Amino acid sequence: AIEEGAELWLGLPSADGRVWMDGKYPRIVSLGAWCCPTLAAREMGIGGPSLPFDWCRSTLSSVLHALRTDFAGFLEYRRVIPHTGRTGDSVMRDYRHDVEPEADIPFKDVYVCDGHSFWHDDLWDKREWDKYDRRIKRLLRLAQSRPPLVFVR
Q1: Phi/psi of residue 30, each to 5°?
Q2: What's the pTM?
Q3: Gyration radius of the chain over CA positions
Q4: Cα–Cα distance, 150 to 39 (Å, whole number)
Q5: 128 burial via Cβ count (<10 Å: 0-12, 13-18, 19+)
Q6: pLDDT tens digits along 51-88
Q7: Which pLDDT does position 88 carry in this prediction?
Q8: Which residue among 39, 102, 135, 152 sits deepest, i.e. has the most Cβ atoms within 10 Å of its Cβ?
């Protein structure tokens, strides 16, 4: 269900926020920057399965490059920076749609690529690459199916 107030935030015309664009629900698509757009959409009840830019920090030029090249080299990182945040910083992962709960990998490093970085993934693990492959395919299918999309950053 859409949380109260979400329809105002999105500018939806109906009082209950349930009718928009000929009765179809929009799909919120995060274009990176950081993870808060996806978190906010989920808190409002309008999120969906994870997409490739949901949980990484990115520049707009990196997003455009990934889209133009079908994500070629998207996960190739140049360096790894040890995470120095508070112990107990939580990692938000979408296990319901991406991996099984027992596939949890302790969060400890930031993987820096050209124009984007991964703060919630350990890219040395093949399961993470498989997870992003699913997210990329999910986004490309969305683009092909032409549902109502709302891009946020």
Answers
A1: -75, 135
A2: 0.73
A3: 16
A4: 15
A5: buried
A6: 999 989 999 999 999 999 999 999 999 999 987 765 54
A7: 46
A8: 135
